[in-house]
Write a sequence for this structure.
């Protein structure tokens, strides 16, 4: 009797190991190796077809296979085995692809560039002393302040004003929201076209430089290389304004209107050192994410009870007053959520910088720096350190939100 | 309250502000779209607003850029690659997460609460924290105390690497959202199915999955657009140096960083082709997308 029980137990342990350990591993390895080999041998078009078929069906095979194996086990164990089979793959993948790498990144950040020897806090010392890193951190702070501020501000304005329209609300919101659907790479390409700079004799095709060089000055008619009645009208006259390489301007010193400023004055020194290219790159992100804020705020504003708004009006409060004293406090938690989302998104901003300037000309951000150290300079220790910095910045923000959320649900 | 009767709504000022903002938002796209229909030489010779002004624009319009970028420059290949990355990267995490969400919502097992907390906690890990070890894992496997758990696979540069990377990054959010959604389903229905002797598999496929379509669609739309628009993961796991490995975003980035000189006719048309798919998905599934987006506000 006892022996039989032991046998049963052994059998169920064996089955659970087979179902939850061995089979998923085989499944993963089979898929990976099969695909690696296919990549080598078959044509590209066929590979895409295989990718679609294998990628979309194999995950079901995993669960069906585990289910079949579990069916072999004695009935009383099945319930707990099934629970582990349902939750297991998700937990395993989160552990393998998120927790293990995160811990390892911490570990690598204390090692040298090839992850051979421990170097203590050397990489962190580098992160806060290297001039390039300091510029990167400065940019990250500028981005955090301005992008989050403007996204929230314009988002609130659009969300609130569009709510007051009788018709066309969806139209306006869709227009502002549309950039959210396209890739940051595409958005950067669009704005690169606007900031485009070409050396002077050439036609300016970016609209900002185009308008700049077409301004008539000192009685001279300046034109952006337009041919009128067979006569060429350029802007090569010395009186005309010269185009500016906007994304190459790391400060204002080369710009005409900043040249006469006294660099010793407090305000004017801030103005002279304004990183104009960083500012212009931030516009791309603001353009992309304002719509998201607007849509979320608009939903929040719609949830404000009409009586409260009406009471404000009857008391004769001005619209600004209604906005500041009723709308803002009412959707405060929504503003915080969107703000948190934006902070996290800005900390991980990568595509815009990578595509626009490649992080050169003092426009770098942490996420780009991290990848540069990894794939360009091959310094894993430093790369991991930058990643840890991003994580450390993200951590308190999200933990804070989670705690606040918890308090809200409890009270 | 009937807002139509209110006087202080619909003021002209409101409209002016909104139209200004909408104009500012649409304006960058306008010249870009226009330029995609102009020949490469014309774009460089005359700015697009001058072309409108002089009226030359209407004689120049052509679709040649699109056929050039799509066929001669192999954007079609990148396009198919994008689908080969995106569709499995959407299906795999959703399936795995749906099973896990079912377990967390309707099943009892040891350590359920702490394990779910673990899932929620993993949402705070930024993608950047996992990149380096994940590249190493896909290349040379994992060893724990000298015991190989995963052997050296060397799968960087294949689609599988991106599927698993995206699945890993998408799973916490998917599990969390779907569990939330399933918790809101009527519990009595699921319990009565169990009493009738339906197995967990049957309940899951026949009952819970059909009822959760809205939640699944929300996450699917979000994940699809996220993966399709992603550049970082494609850059790291597929690379940008092998032309046959390019996806749409990395292809457009190659165009935009200047590898093609001043090829604005290809940059514009390429970028616009890359935007067609997300914009279609976005406008047809806007409701789901916004829902997934709000839920995904803390995605790692």
């Amino acid at each position: 009797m006892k022996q039989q029980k032991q046998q049963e137990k052994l059998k169920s342990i064996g089955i659970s190991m087979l179902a939850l350990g061995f089979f998923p591993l085989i499944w993963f390895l089979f898929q990976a190796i099969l695909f690696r080999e296919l990549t080598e041998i078959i044509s590209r078009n066929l590979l895409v077809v295989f990718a679609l078929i294998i990628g979309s069906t194999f995950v079901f095979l995993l669960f069906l296979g585990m289910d079949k194996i579990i069916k072999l086990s004695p009935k009383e164990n099945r319930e707990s085995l099934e629970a582990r089979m349902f939750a297991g793959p998700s937990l395993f993948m989160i552990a393998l692809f998120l927790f293990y790498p995160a811990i390892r990144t911490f570990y690598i950040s204390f090692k040298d560039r090839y992850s051979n020897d421990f170097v203590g806090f050397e990489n962190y010392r580098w992160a806060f002393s290297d001039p390039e890193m300091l510029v990167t951190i400065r940019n990250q702070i500028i981005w955090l302040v301005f992008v989050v501020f403007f996204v929230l501000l314009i988002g609130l304005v659009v969300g609130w004003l569009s709510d007051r329209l009788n018709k066309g609300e969806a139209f306006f919101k869709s227009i502002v929201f549309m950039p959210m659907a396209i890739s940051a790479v595409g958005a950067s390409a669009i704005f690169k076209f606007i900031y485009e700079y070409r050396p002077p004799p050439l036609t300016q095709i970016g609209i900002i430089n185009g308008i700049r060089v077409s301004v008539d000055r000192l009685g001279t008619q300046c034109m952006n290389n337009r041919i009128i009645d067979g006569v060429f009208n350029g802007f090569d006259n010395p009186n005309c304004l010269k185009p500016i390489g906007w994304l190459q301007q790391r400060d204002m010193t080369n710009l005409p209107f900043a040249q006469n400023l006294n660099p010793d004055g407090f305000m004017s020194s801030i103005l002279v050192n304004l990183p104009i290219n960083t500012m212009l790159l931030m516009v791309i992100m603001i353009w992309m994410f304002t719509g998201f804020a607007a849509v979320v705020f608009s939903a929040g504003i719609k949830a404000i009870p009409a009586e409260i708004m009406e009471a404000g009006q009857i008391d004769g409060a001005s619209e600004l007053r209604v906005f500041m004293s009723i709308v803002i406090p009412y959707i405060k938690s929504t503003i915080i959520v969107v703000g948190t989302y934006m902070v996290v998104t800005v900390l991980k901003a990568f595509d815009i910088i990578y595509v626009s300037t490649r992080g050169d000309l003092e426009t770098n951000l942490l996420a780009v720096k991290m990848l540069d150290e990894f794939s360009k300079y091959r310094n894993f220790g430093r790369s991991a350190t930058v990643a840890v910095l991003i994580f450390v910045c993200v951590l308190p923000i999200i933990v804070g939100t989670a705690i606040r959320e918890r308090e809200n649900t409890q009270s | 309250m009937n807002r139509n009767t209110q006087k202080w709504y619909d003021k002209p000022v409101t409209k002016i502000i909104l139209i200004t903002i909408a104009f500012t938002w649409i304006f960058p796209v306008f010249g870009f779209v226009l330029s995609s229909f102009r020949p490469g030489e014309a774009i460089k010779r005359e700015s697009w607003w001058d072309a409108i002004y002089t009226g030359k624009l209407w004689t120049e319009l052509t679709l040649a850029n699109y056929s050039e970028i799509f066929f001669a420059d192999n954007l079609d290949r990148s396009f198919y690659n994008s689908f080969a990355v995106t569709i499995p990267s959407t299906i795999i995490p959703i399936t795995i997460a749906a099973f896990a969400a079912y377990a967390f919502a309707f099943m009892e097992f040891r350590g359920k609460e702490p394990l779910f907390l673990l899932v929620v906690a993993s949402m705070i890990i930024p993608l950047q924290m996992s990149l380096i070890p994940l590249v190493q894992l896909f290349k040379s496997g994992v060893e724990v105390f000298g015991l190989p758990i995963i052997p050296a696979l060397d799968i960087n540069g294949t689609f599988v690497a991106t599927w698993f990377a995206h699945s890993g990054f998408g799973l916490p959010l998917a599990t969390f959202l779907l569990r939330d959604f399933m918790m809101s389903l009527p519990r009595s229905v699921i319990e009565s199915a169990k009493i009738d002797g339906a197995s967990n598999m049957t309940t899951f496929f026949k009952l819970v999955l059909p009822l959760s379509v809205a939640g699944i669609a929300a996450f699917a739309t979000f994940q699809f657009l996220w993966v399709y628009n992603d550049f970082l993961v494609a850059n790291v796991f597929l690379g940008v140096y092998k032309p046959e490995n390019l996806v749409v975003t990395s292809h457009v980035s190659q165009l935009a960083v200047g590898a093609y000189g001043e090829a604005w006719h290809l940059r514009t048309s390429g970028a616009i082709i890359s935007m067609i798919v997300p914009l279609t998905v976005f406008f047809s599934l806007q409701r789901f997308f916004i829902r997934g987006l709000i839920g995904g506000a803390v995605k790692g």
Residues 1-62 of chain B form one domain.
